[in-house]
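agent> Task received from the user: take the single chain below, predict its 3D structure, and emit structure tokens. No templates, no multimer pairing.
agent> Plan: (1) validate residues, (2) run structure prediction, (3) serialize to tokens, (4) report one or two observations.
agent> Step 1 OK, no nonstandard residues flagged.
tool_call: predict_structure(input=
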Amino acid sequence: MSGRRLILGFLVVLAVFTAALIYFQFFAFYQRDQESAMIEAGGRILPARDLDRIDAETSPLKLRACFRTEPALLRDLPVAKEPTPLTPPPWFDCFDVGRLSVDIASGKAQAYQLAAGEPEGTVTIVAVYPDGRAYLWRQLAEGYAE
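)
tool_result: status=success, residues=146
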């Protein structure tokens, strides 16, 4: 009987730990912003319509945003080297990493470097489609990726 209780206790602790891990990984620290009308990075301000942005203070790499803007406003920015969209939490469904990666590779979307080193070790990337759909994320800078 005590073996069953031990196993049952272990499974309960495992379930609680798993639930806590999932909560802290995907929900706890993210802050959602759907009200701003601009994106600010690298000293630039981009007008943003239909903005849906998430970010967290716990990591600079948690920034993701989906919005609409004028593609012409980005053309003077440097083209991003090796843009790699990072996977957002499952509930942030406007940011489709698979489609975005394929579209950047095929040229359907163009990725620009919006800011570098803000915060240190990161590069802020914005990918824009000709129709104005735009996606923003931060990724590790070249020297920090190893």
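agent> Step 4: summary for the user.
Strands lie at 31-33, 38-41, 44-47, 49-55, 64-68, 110-116, 122-128, 133-140.
agent> Done.
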